[in-house]
Amino acid sequence: MKGKFITFEGIDGAGKSSHVEWIAGALRQRGLTVHVTREPGGTELGEKLRELLLNEPMHLETETLLMFAARREHLARLIEPALARGEWVVCDRFSDATYAYQGGGRGLDRAKFLALEHWVHGHLQPDLTLLFDLPLDVARERIVLANRVLDKFEQERADFHERVRQAYLERAHASPARFRVIDANRPIDDIRKQLEQIISTICL
Ligand SMILES: Nc1ncnc2c1ncn2[C@@H]1O[C@H](COP(=O)(O)OP(=O)(O)OP(=O)(O)O)[C@@H](O)[C@H]1O
Ligand SMILES: Cc1cn([C@H]2C[C@H](O)[C@@H](COP(=O)(O)O)O2)c(=O)[nH]c1=O
């Protein structure tokens, strides 16, 4: 079977990372070779860029270019070779995050996003994108309960995160064949049952 590229998306605290390893395990049980990775990050250089991106204030275009620079490295070193070998890649965030955070959240010109997307991976889109969607206040409450140190994005105001959420939903609406919108305001076990059904259909 051909390798597939699955991405997880959603606002901060949506709960996507809680399912990334689980879905990889479910795929491995079907005999597949699966790589779990994340953005920004996923390579040695990408993880260094992640440190800067999540902590240093910078111009919006610098932030966007660094997200795509990290992505180019990630594609070249991990994602494209794995897919070429027929292996699967499960990635916590990809370019839809740039569309939602830098575009929706910060107001990056859409044409600039599209130009970078075309340059960096015009030939490749995820086979499946799971968008974890839920009201902002529920996601905020989860982050507070987790008691973690907030990064630059998590420290943004509620209106920023609301714009990110809406941009994700708009992007999902524009590509219904690629996206599955998951109601993330449910218990983890219920979400896993839905994910199990989704992967059964793509593993056929
Ligand atoms: N369905 C759920 N119900 C209740 N709590 C949840 C649910 N899913 C995840 N959580 C909890 O919410 C917190 C955030 O979850 P997680 O780290 O998976 O979110 P995330 O979308 O990856 O966030 P971020 O992008 O900010 O890292 C964690 O403490 C997790 O245990
Ligand atoms: C890929 C990507 C990510 N971001 C933001 C979104 C999150 O707030 C952080 C990553 O943190 P996580 O806990 O690993 O989800 O980075 C972004 O703004 N633009 C992007 O392209």
From TrEMBL:
Gene3D superfamilies on file: P-loop containing nucleotide triphosphate hydrolases
The EC number(s) this enzyme carries: 2.7.4.9
Coiled coil: 136-170
GO terms, molecular function: dTMP kinase activity
KW Cytoplasm (keyword) present: no
Assigned keywords, A-Z: ATP-binding, Coiled coil, Kinase, Nucleotide biosynthesis, Nucleotide-binding, Transferase
Domain called Thymidylate kinase-like: residue spans: 8-194
Ligand binding (ATP): 10-17
Catalytic activity: dTMP + ATP = dTDP + ADP
Protein purpose: Phosphorylation of dTMP to form dTDP in both de novo and salvage pathways of dTTP synthesis.
NCBIfam families: DTMP_kinase
Similarity comment: Belongs to the thymidylate kinase family.
Protein name according to UniProt: Thymidylate kinase
Record gene name: tmk
